[in-house]
Amino acid sequence: MNNHSGRGRVSGLPAWDRCAVMGVVNVTPDSFSDGGRWFDTTKAVKHGLDLVTEGADLVDVGGESTRPGATRVDEAEELKRVVPVVGLLAAEGVTVSVDTMRASVAEQALAAGAVLVNDVSGGLADPAMIPVVANAGAPFVVMHWRGFMEGGNVKGVYADVVSEVLDELHARVDAVLAGGVAPDRIVVDPGLGFSKDADHDLALLAHLDRLHGLGHPLLVAASRKRFLGRVLAGPEGAPPPARERDAATAAVSALAAHQGAWAVRVHEVRATADAVRVARAVEEARGAEAVRSTEGAR
Question: Which of 49, 84, 105, 156 sits at a 20 to 30 Å CA gap from 62?
Answer without folding.
Answer: 156
